[in-house]
Records
---
Amino acid sequence: MGTLGSAVLPLRASAGAQRTVELICRQAWGARNPTGDFERHRIRRITVHHSAVALRDNRLAPSRLRSHQAAHQDRGWPDIAYHLLIDRNGNVYEGRPRWAVGDTSTNYDPRGHLLVMCEGNFQEQRPSSAQVQALVDVLAWGVDRYDVGVRTIRGHLEYADTACPGRALQRRLGEVRRRVRERLEAGGIRLAGLCGEEGAARVDAIEAGKA
Ligand SMILES: [Zn+2]
């Protein structure tokens, strides 16, 4: 899909303690092409979401993403609603292009929001430590890349009448913001695309319960 663009460039190449997050490319998880036009936006804040579908067996994560995308496109949206997707083992997947406004069925305007979705229903289950760690890393990357304040990291329910991202994740966000600050002070995060055969191998490993 070529949507990674400059995102794969190191952000703080001089920082010794910089960490890398691997981003599984769209084609690797079997995303369909967008079915309509996107609206461009400039990211000013980051919003945390859940999928609202409980996920117990992480081997199902890639197929869940495919079904979310199909359901969202069936609503008439051009693509999966969210920009970055995180499974229970902390694998990170590329969603909708980040330059494009997300979609929502709730009463807020998603323009300017980078939408980060954690797979699961956190009204019914707790996020795993691997998932929260990946969330911290993705948010640290987003804060740096888009030059938004850590304070702009909020749960969806702070903008709209919704339970999203679920009680068990929402109550972690204070801790998450603190850990994002620590990660940025420690050197930040680089996002590296995991595409082609590498991306396909990672998705195979996830579906085999090995990643
Ligand atoms: Zn949400």
---
Amino acid sequence: MQVVDRRQAARTPLLLISLLGALAAMPASAQNCLEPGCDPSEIAVWSSSVVSLVRGPIDVAIPALGNVSHGDPLDIPGPPNAIPTDAVSLGDGGSVTVHFSTPFRDGPDFDLAVFENGITSGGGLLYIEAGFVEVSSNGIDFARFPSLTSQTSSVLPLQELDADDFANFAGHRLVGIGSEFDLSDLANDPLVIAGDVDLRAIEYVRIIDVIGNGSTFDSMSSPVYDPYPTQFVTGGFDIDAVGAIYVPEPGTASSALLGACFVAFVARRRA
Ligand SMILES: [Ca+2]
Ligand SMILES: [Ca+2]
Ligand SMILES: [Ca+2]
């Protein structure tokens, strides 16, 4: 299988043009996930299992503090608990990969929602712990959603942020509301063009904590800042649930079967 440097791939001009076009089109064209963000009632299928959970450190700069430990991964499949304390913490740079037993596809507008445990003290700002999101149809090749941040300075540990400064990141919605993603933003990803990631049948979603100290980058190579350090056992991105909106089109398999039966029928009549 072809190995592609995802950061290099995300930097390709074609992909950036696609991202900027998609982001510009979002408010005018979106017909779902208008909260903003996706309500659980809009979700058709939920992740069915956790394939991998890699807990990151409490503080990447102080390894002696150990890794985060909060939350039970068995709580991730299915709908969100929607309780801020009831999520699984990833720590600095940690990641989680979930599997959907029913694949999902690129349909009109948003297709995927990632539920974190964002809280707010009011005033339109949110305690955001952001994550990169990647999808795969085979569990090997993962395409990362092109992301864009306009938060240009470091963030204090409990500082609240503007969700509008985080495009195509998970974790920028309130607890119980999913960060929305449109698979069509990946149409020009090299892995999709090569056929290694099939946007008609996505089975795996991976979320990676961005750390937040500026050491990781968005698709424009800008450093990503969110609260850092977060020196608690609940540090980093907190995953609650992952849901998808469009399952494969009904009748695809049965139409193929009917077609095969018709061919066999005609062949027999001619015999
Ligand atoms: Ca879509
Ligand atoms: Ca959080
Ligand atoms: Ca983080």
